[in-house]
Design a protein that fits this description.
Blueprint: E1 4-7, E2 18-26, E3 34-43, E4 54-65, H1 67-80, E5 85-91
Parallel strand pairs: 1-5, 2-5
Antiparallel strand pairs: 2-3, 3-4
Length: 92
Amino acid sequence: MDVRVVDERTMAAMSEPDFVRVRVLRRGAGDDLAITTIERVVRRNVVKPTSPARKVKTLIERQPMTFDAALGFAKLYAKSKNIKLVLTTEDA
């Protein structure tokens, strides 16, 4: 199964109900390590009035790692759970 990696800023509309999001906060211009948060987001088809429309499960929260390592982890996780989409976003 192929896992698509897409920059979140370029996505016009979300078509996948289940995806992995990689958020990277760069610490400095010359620093390879970044503060990384990786989440699994599941949009629910049937929403109860008392529950949110989507569920967010944090896999890694605010850990220093390179972008390549974070993306590699997210792709492996997505593939193991049959998730077709990984969204990435970088904050400066």
